[in-house]
Write a structure and sequence with these properties.
α5 packs parallel to α10, α10 packs antiparallel against α11 and α14 runs antiparallel to α16. The strands form 3 sheets. Strands 2-1-5-4-3 form a 5-stranded antiparallel β-sheet. Helix content is 50%, strand content 22%. The protein has 16 helices and 15 strands. It is elongated. The chain is an alpha+beta fold and 523 residues long. The structure holds adenosine-5'-diphosphate and magnesium ion. Adenosine-5'-diphosphate binds next to α14 and α16.
Length: 523
């Protein structure tokens, strides 16, 4: 290690520090009524975006904008009066963006003890401050997502938070229409109304401005200057009218890569994003995605519960109709027979015993019929046969009823333990009930086979018909509540359901239910 270095070498070393230190360093001369920049290091120009000739030789009021200027001047005077270093934090808008800095100012006196210079340093904490502010804003927006705020209000809060972090950007969120062909207004509180209206409903394709193109190609589209980019051809006049020059748009995707919307930043000057900008956009896109998906889920749930309610209502209507038509009719016959007997009993010519007995036989068989009807209807409401007879007999009974009602042959084969858990039995019975109803309503089948067997730890139920076969789109359709209900029922018990159309025709439904489960429940 060299200890004795020449003054020239030491000057070179000092210059090396000054030129390369990451913090801002500057020297101010104190003059009559103010302060003038004498020297700034290269970090100064890169942090502020100001050129050296815009700073060196200039007075502070020509370099530092208000409202920072008043604070800065007060602190300079404080340092001079107290003859010691003064520190503070400030936020100042420079051409390079809004900067958060930890500033120190140290007074330097001449031999006579007069304060002649100020040495300043600034430690740039923009990234940390931004990350903190962003985390807070993100938290606030996520709280809105979790509460009952509307999607519009949540997205607007997000847009405002981003704009606050990245002035002078104007932020916008567009949503994708349900059929996926157009973008719809989401939130863009600071873009001109006319611009928002013009974009609302714009098509999605590969040459449709930044957002339409980003949605079509499912990747970020950075347009540095709308004035020259071919993607903006159709929207150039619009952009020009509103002075929007740069537009960077990023698609908002869900987990399955479906486009939910776009997030865009607009600027009034041509511009390319910095890494910081890209990070900010990525976070905004993430939060927007959560908000939109949550909203989608909510509306799906609302629609589903509406449909379930409608299905229940339909079921109740069906039962009411059956009680009215079937029971009502049989009871009317009964009532008429009783009235006939009463009338004859009162009439002068005596009712012969054998006629009376014959009539009572009729009454009795009508009553039997009514009892059967009541059993059938109540069995449909709750399969009591299941509790009385066990699953195999209940299925056989169900098949018999089905055959009688529809004329479709229904064969049941059970090769399983009679002692199934109660909830498994109920599930199988209900699933078969829905499957047979579908066969009667949709299949145009002549025969249906119901098979129940045990395969190691699983109970396997198969329902096969020889009808026209169910279509894959029926299975995919969220309105297929019957299919959905069957699947839900076995899923609740840890099982699986598959619905297939056989190549040779007809439908096969296969349900697998595990027989020993951890955490299973009865019901
Ligand atoms: N066994 C079947 N054969 C042919 N098509 C079927 C069969 N089961 C269901 N489907 C079709 O699947 C659709 C959805 O069934 P489901 O969810 O039970 O609703 P729903 O019975 O109320 O129409 C039916 O509308 C029908 O088009
Ligand atoms: Mg159905």
């Amino acid at each position: 290690v060299e200890v004795d270095r020449s003054p020239a070498e030491r000057d070179r070393a000092r210059a090396l520090i000054y030129e390369n230190v990451r913090d801002v360093v500057f020297l101010l001369e104190i003059e009559e009524g103010g302060f003038r920049f004498l020297e700034i290091n290269p970090a100064f120009t890169s942090a502020t975006g100001l050129r050296e000739d815009q700073v060196v030789g200039k007075r502070v009021e020509d370099v530092i904008p208000e409202p920072s200027l008043s604070l800065v001047l007060a602190r300079y005077h404080e340092a001079i009066e107290r003859k010691e270093t003064v520190r503070w934090e400030e936020i100042t808008p420079y051409p390079a963006g809004r900067k958060y800095g930890q500033v120190s100012i140290t007074p330097v006196s001449d031999e006579a003890g007069r304060c002649r210079y100020l040495i300043g340093t600034v430690h740039d904490v923009t990234a940390e401050a931004r990350a903190r502010a962003l985390a807070t804003a993100e938290q606030r927006v996520l709280e809105m997502v979790a509460s009952d705020s509307t999607l519009a209000a949540t997205l607007e809060a997000l847009v405002l938070a981003v704009e606050e972090q990245a002035p002078p950007a104007l932020a916008s969120i567009l949503l994708v229409s349900p059929e996926g062909e157009r973008v719809l207004h989401g939130a863009a509180p600071h873009l001109p109304d006319e611009f928002n209206r013009a974009i609302d409903g714009a098509r999605i394709d590969e040459r449709a401005g930044s957002c339409g193109t980003a949605a079509a190609l499912r990747r970020s589209i950075i347009v540095e200057d709308t004035e020259h980019d071919p993607l903006w051809e159709d929207y150039r006049d619009l952009a020009r009218r509103h002075g929007l020059r740069a537009c960077w748009s990023t698609p908002i995707l869900n987990r399955d890569d479906r486009v939910l919307g776009t997030f865009a930043l607009y600027y009034r000057e041509p511009r390319v994003p910095t890494q910081e900008d890209l990070d900010l956009i990525a976070r905004a896109v993430h939060v927007a995605g959560i908000a939109i998906q949550r909203h989608e889920l909510d509306s799906q749930l609302r629609a589903l519960s509406g449909r379930i309610e409608a299905a229940r209502e339909e079921e109740r209507t069906g039962i009411a109709r059956e009680i009215h038509d079937q029971l009502g009719q049989s009871l009317t016959v009964l009532k008429m027979d009783i009235a006939w007997i009463a009338r004859r009993a009162r009439s002068p010519e005596r009712l012969a015993v054998d006629v009376l007995l014959e009539k009572l036989d009729e009454l009795s068989s009508t009553t039997d019929e009514i009892i059967r009807e009541v059993r059938r209807i109540s069995a449909e409401l709750r399969p009591g046969v299941l509790d009385d007879l066990g699953l195999p007999s209940a299925l056989a009974w169900q098949a018999q009823e089905f055959e009688k009602r529809t004329g479709i042959v229904c064969a049941v084969k059970v090769r399983a333990d009679e002692k199934l858990p109660r909830d498994v039995g109920t599930a199988v019975f209900r699933v078969v009930q829905e499957a047979l109803t579908n066969v009667a309503r949709h299949a145009e089948a002549r025969r249906v086979d119901v098979e129940l067997e045990q395969d190691q730890g699983d109970l396997v139920l198969e329902v096969r018909d020889d009808g026209k076969g169910l279509r894959p789109e029926d299975v995919a359709d969220p309105r297929s509540l019957g299919l959905l209900g069957m699947r839900e029922r076995v899923r609740r018990l840890g099982g699986t359901a598959s619905f297939l159309r056989r190549p040779e025709g007809g439908t096969t439904l296969v349900f697998r239910l595990p027989l020993s489960r951890a955490g299973g429940h009865d019901g």
